[in-house]
Amino acid sequence: MDTASLTGKDLAAAINSDTAKRAAALADAGAAPTLALVVANDDSASTWYVNSLRRAAKKLGIECDRIDLGAYASAARIRSELTARSADPAVDAIMLQTPLPAGVTLDDVSSAIDARKDVDGVSPLSLGLLAAGLDGFVPATSEAVVELLVHHEIPLEGRTVTVVGRSNIVGKPLAQLLLAKNATVTVAHSRTADLAAATSAAEIVVAAAGRIGLVTGEHVNEGAIVIDVGTNESADGSIVGDVDAATVTGKAAGLSPVPGGVGPVTTALLMRHVVVAAENARG
Amino acid sequence: MDTASLTGKDLAAAINSDTAKRAAALADAGAAPTLALVVANDDSASTWYVNSLRRAAKKLGIECDRIDLGAYASAARIRSELTARSADPAVDAIMLQTPLPAGVTLDDVSSAIDARKDVDGVSPLSLGLLAAGLDGFVPATSEAVVELLVHHEIPLEGRTVTVVGRSNIVGKPLAQLLLAKNATVTVAHSRTADLAAATSAAEIVVAAAGRIGLVTGEHVNEGAIVIDVGTNESADGSIVGDVDAATVTGKAAGLSPVPGGVGPVTTALLMRHVVVAAENARG
Question: For the structural domain made of B30-115, what CATH number should be given?
């Protein structure tokens, strides 16, 4: 079977084109939308990602302030920074970059981000608004998976989807979004006894476990749709996904590439969230 | 196969015994724990349930104030009542009874309940704390399902569980709790294309759809565990579950009865939450 490449580049470009227009309108009306990017690590992959976000923001006319708290910042220091930026009317949007310093978890600090500025949807209130089906910012990666499927005209209503991974920022919010689209959703993870049984029962498989090559051709049904959310650093420094593309290609009906699949859509949605936060704040 | 009856009565009694002691200690130290039960309907099943909660509270030494706003209360009226009770130090815990008046949804009003008093875990913040794995009150019915399984020594780690129903107060929070116990979780619902496929693939099936007899013997595997969360009013006024006990009995390894299964555990957990809220408030 031919395996279609479910790229995210066209979709990202379309979102970005709209975002740039709205950012320009905000700038014309007073000030460009502003994202505060709070960093507390010296991780190389994180630095690479932060730089790519800053470049994306610049292209779209979004102001992006990097606030570096250092790799040894305490939870209290990070919370106080997030609280201050939440109260600052010059800041429209806040993103806290991971990883965090040793001993600090996202749960320790994320509630200090005002939900109205929480463009990556990480605070407990944002997660709860999603669980309740209310308006709020959804974690961009999980939203990107759904948008990518919709863009490629893959129906979700009544379909079986298995999500591999149960993180608070991808797997769990994605399950909520898929349920809202009327999919029948299974969440599998590292403690799942028979991963191949969970994935091969599904029409759509989303790999979001953060493990190189976890999902192979043996895990997916002939004709399934496979979305690869993984962005793992390989031994040679390149970014590779959770899916073993070599064995899935020829068996799946569609596979999203890494890079160039979910990634660009995630960045585009994050930037759209910044503009939405700014529009909301300015009435 | 013999089908064990997974009753909740012993477990509820054990929880209640502990709750009564803690309520007495609180009363000795100053004041009995107090639950404000806000009602805005004239529904007979709701009235029956409210009365049963008041009897349960009384037996345990918990003060239970019924605040009746009438079946035509506006969302604004309900919110203002919930806000006032949230601010009132004499109230330890708040429960908003459903159904709500026509045109008012739980989502319209639940955020007015302070999360520290939200003993049925319905506010967006409570749902988000659950999604993030943080401390907060969990919807009592979903917690009761997990506690009932644990009580009957049914392991969850690595097991496959299908939850039928995706409500914000049972199905969705239950999926979170089961994931936290390392189960592989599928959520099926009214739009699921092949319900029998989703349920018969699971070692444990939880029926929480609110439809009489939805889950029959044809839906469950030989030897499966079946938990019935349904509390539907039948034509003759009795309370019946979502499971067709006649066809499931003899095929399943265990089935929770209705009444006498999840129900008494739910009430016991609600009352325990009231005592916990009071203990927390009084330091």
Answer: 3.40.50.10860
**Res B158: pLDDT:** 96
On chain A, the residues whose CB falls within 8 A of the CB of B174 are none
Whether A67 has its CB under 8 Å from any CB of chain B: the answer is: no
Contact (CB, 8 A) for A278 and A30: no
State the Cα–Cα distance between residues A69 and A81, nearest whole angstrom: 9
* Superfamily for the A140-261 domain: NAD(P)-binding Rossmann-like Domain (3.40.50.720)
CB B131, CB A124: distance < 8 Å: yes
A139 Cβ under 8 Å from any chain B Cβ: no
Give the model's confidence band at B150: pLDDT under 50 very low, under 70 low, under 90 confident, else very high. Answer: very high
* A166 annotated as a binding-site residue: yes
**pLDDT surpasses 90 at B283:** no
CA distance linking residue B97 with residue A90, whole number of Å: 42
CA distance B262 to chain A (A): 23
Confidence of residue B29 (pLDDT cuts 50, 70, 90): very high
Q: Which of the 8 DSSP states describes residue A218?
A: G
What fold is seen in the domain B140-263? Rossmann fold (3.40.50)
Percentage helix, strand, coil, to 5, in chain B? 45, 15, 40
Tokens, residue A36: 């505060």
Q: Which of B241, B257, B237 is nearest to B249 (CA)?
A: B257
CB within 8 Å: A107 and B158:
no
> Where is the binding site for NADP(+), in residues of B?
165-167, 231
Q: For the domain A31-114, what is the CATH code? A: 3.40.50.10860
Question: Does the structure show a pLDDT above 90 at A45?
Answer: no
* Residues with Cβ within 8 Å of residue A216, at least 6 apart in sequence: A243, A244, A247, A248
Going by pLDDT thresholds of 50, 70 and 90, the confidence category of residue B233 is confident
A31-114 and A140-261: same fold?
A: yes
Instruction: Delimit the domains of chain B by residue range.
Output: 30-115, 140-263
pLDDT at residue A237, as a whole number:
83
Q: B85 and B118 in contact (C-beta within 8 Å)? A: no
